[in-house]
Design a protein that fits this description.
Number of helices: 16
Strand order of the largest sheet: 1-3-2
Order of helices and strands: HHEHHEEHHHHHHHHHHHH
Largest sheet: 3 strands, antiparallel
Structural class: mainly alpha
Radius of gyration: 26 Å
Mean pLDDT: 90
CATH topology of one domain: Arc Repressor Mutant, subunit A
Low-confidence stretches: 296-315
Length: 315
């Protein structure tokens, strides 16, 4: 089949062949503007070639018109089959692929500069393939958060694992520590969303994030990670460990003076002591929590409530 398709590609006009090869880098579905950015050519020339290919061959199907936020309007197309795209893509050198992926990613980023959320997954893909490590990591993390927000935990984990594999290529050591911290925190949330609190991978992600947070030295940033570790210990009924972590939470909360941090710390200690049967101590922490100047004091102090609260992105 590949041999047959290669012969049919060879029979196309040379200009159409070249444009289709660039289009294979853009993806299964693409726009004239994306292909033009990779080819560094006039949109009109690219559109003529794509229109010809869609009308004279079965490699492409026209999909109407697509508009971008920067007012770009161009034709939209789709390959007739994934194999068509793959055969064309295989004709490219590694250097061509890297260059064209990066050019397309940069063009798409400019088009959506005010709000990239609709295309974070596509930007992540093209920047990864374009070997732009800093932006690839940035968009992989944003794509993972977006996937987690719509309960696609498997997709989120896939983005995060890809980012962690790419992380050693990040030039700056300092940025690498911060980036891994962010990735590990999100990975812990994604694993818990997919498989629950009791899996060792979730604990490993939060423990690694905590180590990195200590190295960074930012208590505000470290606090949510410690909340995650305390939640895991509490839900796994490791009450001594949970109580110790709750004490650490209170120390950090007193350092920051943040009422929300204090609410989490007192809430954690109240729940821990109540589950151990220390009712008077638990009641004391609960009353202190309720008196704090924050709406968090009115939230029921259950493990699931507290964990979903921190997973949603506590400041």
């Amino acid at each position: 089949m590949r041999q047959l398709l290669n012969k049919q590609i060879d029979q196309l006009p040379e200009t159409v062949q070249e444009v289709l090869k660039v289009a294979s880098v853009a993806g299964m579905q693409f726009t004239t503007a994306m292909v033009a950015s990779g080819a560094e050519a006039e949109t009109g020339l690219i559109d003529d070639a794509l229109t010809w290919a869609a009308s004279k061959s079965y490699f492409l199907q026209a999909q109407g018109i697509e508009s971008w936020p920067d007012s770009t309007v161009s034709g939209a197309y789709q390959f007739g089959h994934a194999l068509y795209r793959q055969v064309l893509y295989d004709r490219l050198s590694a250097e061509q692929c890297v260059k064209w992926h990066r050019l397309m990613a940069e063009r798409l980023e400019r088009a959506y500069i005010d709000d990239v959320e609709p295309v974070v997954g596509l930007l992540a893909y093209h920047f990864v393939q374009g070997r732009d490590v800093p932006r690839a990591l940035q968009y992989l993390h944003r794509a993972s958060l977006k996937a987690l927000g719509r309960y696609a935990a498997n997709e989120s984990i896939a983005h995060l694992n890809a980012a962690l594999e790419l992380l050693p290529a990040l030039p700056s050591e300092q940025n690498r520590v911060q980036m891994e911290y962010d990735l590990q925190v999100t990975l812990g949330k994604a694993i818990i969303s997919r498989r629950g609190v009791r899996v060792p991978e979730a604990l490993a992600a939060y423990e690694r994030a905590y180590q990195l947070g200590v190295a960074i030295g930012d208590v505000e940033q470290l606090f949510p990670t410690l909340v995650g570790l305390e939640n895991i210990a509490c839900i796994q009924a490791k009450f001594q460990q949970s109580q110790h972590l709750g004490g650490q939470l209170l120390n950090y909360a007193q350092m920051t003076g943040n009422p929300l941090h204090l609410a989490h710390a007192y809430g954690a200690l109240s729940l821990n002591h109540s589950m151990q049967g220390h009712i008077l101590v638990a009641n004391h922490y609960a009353q202190v929590c309720q008196r704090l100047p924050t709406t968090c004091g009115a939230i029921p102090l259950t493990p699931s409530t507290r964990f979903s609260f921190v997973s949603a992105g506590m400041p």
